[in-house]
TrEMBL record:
Broad enzyme group: ligase
One Pfam short name: GARS_A
Cofactor: Mg(2+); Mn(2+)
Organism: alpha proteobacterium IMCC14465
GO molecular function, one term: phosphoribosylamine-glycine ligase activity
Protein name per UniProt: Phosphoribosylamine--glycine ligase
Keywords, alphabetical: ATP-binding, Ligase, Manganese, Metal-binding, Nucleotide-binding, Purine biosynthesis
Pathway(s) of this molecule: Purine metabolism; IMP biosynthesis via de novo pathway; N(1)-(5-phospho-D-ribosyl)glycinamide from 5-phospho-alpha-D-ribose 1-diphosphate: step 2/2
Domain ATP-grasp: 112-317
Length: 428
């Protein structure tokens, strides 16, 4: 690749995509960066275009017209819809797995069956197509137990049932259509206890390069309470993932999964995100995602020292055997600012002020999610709205910078958790 020779299209509109665009925009290889649809933050560094990113023909048409060299697919929807397949059929490099490989996220039962066949540690489970069979399973599997819609449900299809009645109600709700087509089938699995970690590898289908570790905070409330969200904050590295644990995760979870996908004739290329439960019996797989985590991507991009573009290209082209990545030694933290009411209903169109002052510190980046710029004003138009992301020497320093920046943001209709990183900070 030569200087300023690469045209890239990033797909998505979240904090994850702003962070990817921010990192890509720093590459000396970049000639032109597009993002569809983007957001109020992305439009300051990329040309935002309105495209139906769930429509492979629409994306392929645009990519051909603009002679795009690489399409970076942020969210899972287009992956499961076969966008990488459609791009590759036109010889356009795509960062993200083909549809058959994206099934690791698209079907929870698919992933559980791989775990069973390749002896990958995960919760014991059953797969069900009818309520009657699911209820029979519950007769012999007491609560607490976890009921999951099989398909994509925007993070909402998982019910942690503390009682048998809740488990049975969840089964009925799912088969009654609470999650639409995603609930045509369901998985019931053993409840696991432990701390969770997000584990990312770049893979070309054979080789796998672990990225920096991270932890997310999925619950809306402080102390990890209240309903699940897309993620309220993250930090990296997650020191709880020791080198030995990393090794164990690679050999017992990641490598057998890549073997399974190759055996199925659909090798997995892209970033593979393993949600891990660190149990007393070692790391176990909670679920796979076929993309970067959001907000984990924000802290990874702030810590990544190397150019991201060659890494994305090598992955998309199917050979990362020579790839190495360098990371900043500093810790990073991102705190999500969301609209009051999220993850329930919230109002849109309120104005956010103070962003320039908040971003004045060289170690702080504010990655936008649900924002748009109108008449020079930044407006909140989504649930998760901003990701205030800082790095510093040690997690307490990163935390202090992020919260100092948050103090400067004037947005009455927003809220954020004040305790991001609490487990790691408590453990010292
Ligand atoms: P998932 O979408 O499968 O990652 O599930 C969302 C969240 O539900 C996870 O991050 C966990 O906090 C929780 N969860 C899912 N499966 C289990 C399980 N088997 N045991 C305990 N918690 C779980
Ligand atoms: N941070 C959780 C997710 O991206 O699914």
């Amino acid at each position: 690749m030569e200087e300023k020779s690469v045209k890239i299209l990033v797909l998505g509109s979240g904090g994850r995509e702003h962070a990817l665009c921010w990192k890509i925009a720093q590459s000396p290889l970049l000639e032109k960066l597009y993002c569809a649809p983007g957001n109020g933050g992305v439009e300051t560094i990329a040309e935002c275009v309105s495209l139906d990113i769930e429509s492979p023909p629409a994306v392929v048409k645009f990519a051909k017209e603009q002679a795009i060299d690489l399409v970076v697919i942020g969210p899972e929807g287009p992956l499961v819809a076969g966008l990488a397949d459609a791009l590759m059929a036109e010889n356009i490099a795509a960062f993200g797995p083909v549809a058959a490989a994206a099934q690791v996220e698209g079907s929870k039962g698919f992933t559980k069956d791989i775990c069973a066949a390749y002896d990958i540690p995960t919760a014991a489970y059953g797969r069900f197509k009818t309520a009657a069979e699911a209820h029979t399973y519950l007769d012999t599997h007491p609560a607490p137990i976890v009921v999951k819609a099989d398909g994509l449900a925007a993070g909402k299809g998982v019910i942690i049932a503390e009682t048998d009645a809740q488990a049975r109600a969840a089964v009925d709700d799912i088969f009654d259509g609470a999650f639409g087509a995603a609930g045509a089938e369901l998985v019931i699995e053993e409840f696991m206890t432990g701390e969770e970690a997000s584990f990312f590898v770049l893979t070309d289908g054979v080789n796998a390069l672990p990225l920096a570790t991270a932890q997310d905070h999925k619950r809306v409330g402080e102390g990890d309470t209240g309903p699940n969200t897309g993620g309220m904050g993250a930090y990296s590295p997650a020191r709880i993932v020791s080198p030995a644990l990393l090794e164990e995760t690679m050999t017992r979870i990641i490598q057998p999964t890549l073997t399974a996908m190759a055996d199925k004739g659909s090798p997995y290329r892209g970033v593979l995100y393993a949600g891990l439960m660190l149990t007393e019996d070692g790391p176990k797989l909670v679920e796979y995602n076929a993309r970067f985590g959001d907000p984990e991507c924000q802290v990874l991009m702030l810590r990544l020292k190397s150019d991201l573009v060659p890494a994305l290209m090598a992955t998309a082209q199917g050979d990362i055997s020579d790839l190495q990545l360098e990371w900043h030694d500093e810790d990073a933290m991102t705190v999500v600012m969301a609209a009051q009411g999220y993850p329930g209903s919230y109002s849109k169109g309120t104005q956010i002020k103070g962003l320039d002052a908040a971003e004045a510190d060289a170690d702080t980046q504010i990655f936008h999610a649900g924002t748009k710029i109108e008449d020079g004003k930044t407006l909140a138009v989504g649930g998760r709205v901003l990701n205030v992301t800082s790095k510093g020497k040690g997690l307490p320093a990163a935390r202090d910078k992020a919260y100092a920046a948050l103090d400067k943001i004037d947005w009455q209709e927003g809220f954020y958790r004040r305790d991001i990183g609490w487990r790691a900070l408590d453990e010292g």
